[in-house]
Amino acid sequence: MLNYDEFKRAVEAEELDTVIVAFTDLTGRQLGKRYDAEYVLDHYHDFESHACDYLLTIGVDMNPLDGFKAANWQRGYGDFHLVPRMGSLRHAAWLDRTAYLVCDVADRDTHQLLTHAPRTVLSKQVEQAQKDGFGALCASELEYFIYNDTYETAFKKGYKNLQTAGWYSEDYHILQGTRTEDLQKAVRYYLKKSGIPVESSKGEFGRGQHELNVAYSDILTMADNHVLYKQCFKAWPSLAPEVAEAQGKSVTFMAKPHHDEAGSSCHIHLNLTSAETGKNAFAGDKDLQGIKCSDTFRHFLGGWIKYTPEIMPFLAPTINSYKRYQTASWAPTSLAWSPDNRTAGFRIVGSGKSLRIECRIPGADVNPYLAFAGSLAAGLEGVRKGIEPPPMMSGDAYRAPSTTKVPVTLNEAAHALEESKFARQAFGDDVVDHYAHYYKKEVEAFRKSVTDWEKQRYFEQI
Questions:
Q1: I want to staple 104 with a disulfide (CB 3.0 to 4.6 A). Which of 83, 87, 271, 348 is the partner?
Q2: Quick check: 194 and 228 in contact, CB under 8 A?
Q3: Domain endpoint, select from 75, 92, 114
Q4: Are strands 286-288 and 198-203 parallel, antiparallel or unpaired?
Q5: Can you give the residue ranges of the GS catalytic domain (predicted)?
Q6: What is the CATH number of the domain that holds 261?
Q7: What is the domain count for the chain?
Q8: Which residue among 78, 93, 114 closes a domain?
Q9: Residue 23 in contact with residue 103, Cβ under 8 Å?
């Protein structure tokens, strides 16, 4: 991380010549501009930038979608302001002589933060937690598949017949993991040098599937770290030959890239801290079916479970997301909770000062700002209303008939979000309308498409 003096020294020493000024779009991608580092230094104390407001109304193909109130053809697609968070300025160590600056997004006229910008959505929930007397700590466990094909090669092959960087299940497997260690070690190194503390990496259940975890932190910092982690893994490292693209590899964070492999998750670990003491607000002497905890823990768990169906698009935002939810797939299919049980949607981990809730429902395709915001809002509502969790589940949650199941399509989830009184109270009508419309447009795009599955199944036989 770089304060003003450190940034000034690095620029003057020609250790930095470029600053990426970036914000996050609805999908969780990084968009923005590259600035000359000397320009940013000269304007450090009053630096601001701008971008076209259509960028928060686009699909993954970068085309503007119609029907949004925030930006549209009738309004002429003007600009919004990028508000730099100078405390986020850091070396982007995987790029040559480059720094990275995270921005919020503000209205061009009022200069108020746009309520539908993903980082604002989370920031508002952090502010609400503070009003309720809490801080929030979080970590996201991201999984991904590595391929021995570049992104360009994968595109030219139509994403067919890609070679996974592993040929058998490698969950915790040291030998198979060693075969991609050049890439994993480089990413661990570059993240650490970019101010993102790394814990570990490991093989996962699928062939070529891995996981790399960064350290637990406050929830907004974790979201920032999450998007930069993905950027490091996927960036084209023209001057950093150790990273994926230069190695002739690619990485996907799709939730379910293969129908016959485990999907990739983004397990969210979360707990509240007391604003007064700084201690874990989940710890306590109350008993919840054998778990020593506080009332805050119990009600947060109750709220998170109760409202998950209404925030599901924030946890599973794509058509592909819902392909993960299959029996015996390591992805949960129900809203059950249980201590240290990987078949349940909510797994209770740790005890005392380390007590936390792991939500295993999100896939690796989440926008972390939205996934964290939805999770925090749901839990806080549970605390405010004293919502009790359902009875603890024992055994195999996949086969427990009495548990509530997760939504099975994005269409179902988008309508649940749109109709949710809780979501409208927590995020505001403008935010809910914006995102519900976005997810329904994705459903519409899929509904119009003709898939390879259809052609293979029907071309001759019908």
A1: 83
A2: yes
A3: 114
A4: unpaired
A5: 118-462
A6: 3.30.590.10
A7: 2
A8: 114
A9: yes
Range of the domain at 342: 115-461
Question: Per-residue pLDDT for the chain (462 aa), expressed as one digit of tens each?
Answer: 899 999 999 999 999 999 999 999 999 999 999 999 999 999 999 999 999 999 999 999 999 999 999 999 999 999 999 999 999 999 999 999 999 999 999 999 999 999 999 999 999 999 999 999 999 999 999 999 999 988 888 999 999 999 999 888 888 889 988 988 888 898 999 999 999 999 999 999 899 999 999 999 999 999 999 999 999 988 743 334 445 555 678 899 999 999 989 999 999 999 999 999 999 999 999 999 999 999 999 999 999 999 999 999 999 999 999 999 988 888 898 899 999 888 899 999 999 999 999 999 999 999 999 999 999 999 999 999 999 999 998 888 888 776 788 999 999 999 999 999 999 999 999 999 999 999 999 999 999 999 999 999 998 999
Separation between Cα atoms, residue 243 and residue 212, nearest integer Å:
14
Q: Are residue 236 and residue 279 in the same domain, yes or no?
A: yes
Q: In three state form, how does the secondary structure of 136-200 look? A: EEEEEEEEEEEECCCHHHHHHCCCCCCCECCCCCCCCCHHHHHCCHHHHHHHHHHHHHCCCCEEE
Pairing of strands 49-52, 79-84: antiparallel
The CA distance from 290 to 339, in Å, is 9
As a 3-state breakdown, the chain gives helix, strand, coil percent values, each rounded to 5, of 40, 20, 40
Q: Are residues 202 and 294 in the same domain?
A: yes
Do 122 and 42 lie in a common domain? Answer: no
Residues 155 and 183 in one domain: yes
User: Are 285 and 429 part of one and the same domain?
Assistant: yes
Co-location of 282 and 262 in the same domain: yes
What Å distances lie between residue 204 and 146, 218, 364, CA to CA? 11, 26, 13
What the block records as the tokens of 319 is 């058509």
Residues 119 and 94 in one domain: no
Q: Are 286 and 341 in contact (CB under 8 A)?
A: no
3-state DSSP call for residue 126?
helix
